[in-house]
Amino acid sequence: MSIHLGAGEFAGATSIAQSPGCQPGAFAQIPAPRQTLYSPVWDHLDQRLHAPDVTSRPLLIVLTSLAAEGCPQLALQLARNWQQQGLSVELLCLQDQPTDLRPEFEALGIPIHNFELGSSLLRYPRLTWLSYRLCRRLRPQAVLSFPLGWHSCIAIGARAAGVRRVCAHVGNLPPVWTGSAFAKFKLLVQLGRPFTDRLFCCSHYIRAATVRDFGVSQRETRTVYNACDLERFAVVQQTANNSQLPRLGVVGRLDDNRDYPTLIRAVAILQVQGICVSVQIIGEGRGRPLLEALISRLNLSDQVHLLGMRRDIPLLLSQLDIFVWPAFHLEGFGIALAEAMAAGVPIVATDVGACREVLDDGRCGLLVKPNSAEALADGIRQVLAAPEAARQRSASARQRALRLFSVAAMAQAYGEELGMFDAFMHRAMPETP
Question: What pLDDT is stored for residue 240 in this prediction?
Fold first, then answer.
């Protein structure tokens, strides 16, 4: 269950819900003032931040929604890992819908809070105020914000409430092509700089873009690769495809972040060339009607199947002959790509964004020209024609995923910046006799 904070609560009501070593952040090095008018405030915050009950305080994770996509999946993995380490985790969602992953979070007993922000310009100060009130009540030891931009309002409210560490996640390429919209986005990032300890960038590609386009310093950022539940995917053995057609698949929400139309057109090209394949597109989203119309128009209803949201992804991946990743240039990592690597499925991906980095310059999967149905069809044909080379790339991909994309490594890196291990040390220290 969760109770929302809306415009009525903005006036003052509280919400109740279910509840490698790094340098300090660029602004974490600013010392507290000497004896000034504000000295009593700093002293009060210092006492609160170092109170002996610090380990009992929750970690607050902020999400836009509970959609079955990248950031909520990461938050779920982090929450599960931190709970196993004895930490309390609570969740804040800025939107009510979609709620795909709510059952998973509720199964962990994680309290879920919701804010109702509205659509006016007042949503920015409202988010700051509601964040302040929530953090005053929960007194979290740290806040991790997945929405970038919004994180600045959350960070200001959290800092005012005495939260010691605030970090944010950068998942995709900054939308520099949007002109004035990006200018507002950049302004929000700049506003949050004094209140944010670190920006976690999910790849070196995204870190470079963050420094270049947002105007932040290198030391304000840290590359931490996204992760997936490797054991869940690596233990599933590839099963024989009893279908007469090679089986292709892709996992992801049906929205503007994936170039599904190019994949569908590539299937039509292969059919003309005498190569029939079966394609499973796993995921749900607002783009479904457009994809259904394209499939119908190209007479591919018997070959291309929209499976919707599924929870048996490891099993579905194990039945694929090829995992296809038709990404756009804003791709920051691709968690489903890492899952396919862990599952040992041959991969064909567009050479955009961080795909080359994740696939180790093509050693772990075949890279093809983006936005080209012909190039994608050619890549699929190459993999089908050379299964031994595909198996070698798949073996390298599995090893790379197991080495770099574990939840434990991601949780460790995030925990270092969020100050979790300071709390562990405090808890482990023996009492003075």
Answer: 58
Give the CA radius of gyration of the chain: 23
Q: How many CA within 13 A on the CB side of residue 5?
A: 27
Determine the pLDDT at residue 428: 43
Who has greater pLDDT, 275 or 30? 275
User: CATH 3.40.50.2000 in the chain, residues?
Assistant: 4-226+408-428, 230-405
CATH of domain 4-226+408-428: 3.40.50.2000
The pLDDT score that the predictor gives to residue 242 is 64
pLDDT digits (tens, 9 = 90+) for 329-353: 889 999 999 999 999 999 999 999 8
pLDDT, one tens digit per residue, over 193-207 is 999 999 999 999 999
What is the average pLDDT value for the chain, to the nearest integer?
86
What Cα–Cα distance (Å) separates residue 119 from each residue in 27, 54, 206, 285, 411? Answer: 31, 36, 29, 22, 34
For 230-405, CATH gives 3.40.50.2000
> How many CA atoms, within 13 angstroms, populate the side-chain half-sphere of residue 280?
22
**Three-state DSSP string of the chain:** CECEECCCHHHCCCCCECCCCCCCCCCCCCCCCCCCCCHHHHHHHHHHHCCCCHHHCCEEEEECCCCCCHHHHHHHHHHHHHHHCCCCEEEEECCCCCCCCHHHHHHCCCCEEEECCCCCCCHHHHHHHHHHHHHHHHCCCEEEECCCCHHHHHHHHHHHCCCCEEEEEECCCCCHHHCHHHHHHHHHHHHHHHHCCEEEECCHHHHHHHHHHHCCCHHHEEECCCCECHHHHHCCCCCCCCCCCCEEEEECCCCCCECHHHHHHHHHHHHHCCCCCEEEEEECCCCHHHHHHHHHHCCCCCCEEEEECCCCHHHHHHCCCEEEECECCCCCCCHHHHHHHHHCCCEEEECCCCHHHHCCCCCCCEEECCCCHHHHHHHHHHHHHCHHHHHHHHHHHHHHHHHHCEHHHHHHHHHHHHCHHHHHHHHHCCCCC
Q: How far apart are the first and last CA of the chain?
A: 44
User: Where is average pLDDT lowest: 36-40, 54-58, 173-177, 290-294?
Assistant: 36-40
